[in-house]
Amino acid sequence: MRRDGRAYVAAAGALVLVGVACTPGDDDNGDGEGGEIVWAIGGAEAQPGGVHQSVAELWNDENPDNPVRIEQLPEEADQQREQQALELQAEGSNFDVLGVDVIWTGEYSENEWVESLEDVRGEIEEASIPGAFESATWGGELWAAPYNTNAGFLYYRTDLVDQPPDTWEALCDQAVEVSQSEDIGGFLGQGARYEGFVVNWLEYYWSAGGELYNEDQTEVLFDTEIAAQATEFMADAMENGCYAPGFNTAREEEGRNEFQQGNVAFLRNWPYVYSQVAGDDGSPANGNFDIAPLPTFTGQGTVSALGGFNNAVSAFSDNTEAAKDFVVWAATNEEAQTMLATEGSVPPTLESVYEELSDDPVMQVLGEILPDARPRPPAPEWNQISVEMQQSLFPAVNGDADVQSAVESVRSYLEGTVQ
Question: What is the model's pLDDT at position 217?
């Protein structure tokens, strides 16, 4: 049965990549304790009309002497990191608060790009859901304030599918059947060559029982047999019609647009898509879709990559005290955290919001997914690891490289990270 979508405020469409127009924050006092706070964060929700803008406006109403201005970064996390890194490597003070992907914590800490938040640890840890809090730590120290978490959903058309599949094989069977009978695409995810591809691949790999490292990342546990199974599944899905046309060039927004326009039956994407589709009266999917946990190879449980963004204070900010006040507020203010859920279907990190919104369909599915969601290692080398996985696995999925050679190459690279 379809869950009825509640009213949401839809965020603006995809960002066009532009250079950062850096404008130094205005420090009224000249002592780093007042003036404008520049918040460098990206994605659709950072655009005008997006929920991050609503959060900034709420802060500004309460703190007119230290207003927040969002510096919009690109849509894709890879490009957001690149623009932040250019500024931080130059020790620039144009950014005060950094919207930091959960996998950048170790890198930013090791590079001494962000301020420690140990002095406010107790206040933040008490309020935050455990997984989100852990994603903001590195080396036992807190380097960012949890802001929003994330987990992958399976979106499906309820007018075309009786119930969501619980195995990847069943999903592909249904996707092929629907695409042939309805003349639309089957299943779409994030298949372009970027970080999203690695996330999607890991969800197959993890759901087959694979691991990357042991708990403290001192030993590589990468299983080439399981990795080959995940890669071959994706390669077969490219060939047999399970994946919709354009899978290998699709990112989050391309997938969202295709599902919202009624062009695919299944979609793997983040929770923010729910409000976009539920708020679009012209969408063929509006009123005809539902959400479910991602399948597994065994049909038991679910495994999703843990995503999300935390807010860190730049080590080069001229307004560090006000910036720290803002990141703590954004992590612990119930009204701000509730906005994330109700205006943008962006999963909050404040534990009390989940209790308050227990009847919300997005919160219900998140309740099923988050306990078993898996983080990518927040290691300083993760960006390089991800690039290596893209270079090895993407060609194999697309039939341009040998699968076994590809997974062995990944195994060899991972072993080099612990030597």
Answer: 85
E-state strands within 144-209 = 145-151, 153-157, 185-188
Residue 117: both structure tokens together: 């938040």
Query: Tokens in use for 135?
Result: 């994603």
Read off φ and ψ for residue 410, nearest 5 degrees: -65, -45
* 159-163: Cβ within 8 A, 24+ apart: 159/288, 160/265, 160/288, 161/265, 161/266
Per DSSP, which regions of 169-238 are E strands? Answer: 185-188
Tell me the C-alpha to C-alpha distance, in Å, between residue 408 and each of 218, 233, 244, 411.
19, 17, 28, 5
In sequence order, which residues have a C-beta less than 8 Å from that of residue 89 and are 6 or more positions away?
none
Query: What are the pLDDT digits (tens) for 244-262?
Result: 999 999 999 999 999 999 9
The ranges of the chain annotated as CATH 3.40.190.10 are 37-150+307-375, 153-303+381-416
CATH class of the 153-303+381-416 domain in this structure:
alpha beta
Q: Which regions in the chain score pLDDT beneath 50?
A: 1-32
pTM for this entry: 0.84
Q: What is residue 306's predicted lDDT score, i.e. its pLDDT?
A: 92
CA triple 329-330-332, angle to 5 deg: 65
Cβ neighbors of 412 (< 8 A, separation 6 or more) are none
Task: Output the six-digit token pair for 241.
Answer: 């019609």
Torsion angle of the four alpha carbons 371, 377, 380, 386, in this order, in degrees rounded to the nearest 10: -120
Report H helices in 208-251: 224-240
Give pLDDT, residue 33: 56
Q: How far is CA 377 from CA 137, 196, 202, 214, in A?
A: 12, 15, 12, 10
At the topology level of CATH, where does 37-150+307-375 sit? D-Maltodextrin-Binding Protein; domain 2 (3.40.190)
Closest C-alpha among 397, 393, 387, 165 to residue 292: 165
What is the sign, positive or negative, of the torsion defined by CA atoms of 24, 25, 29, 33?
negative
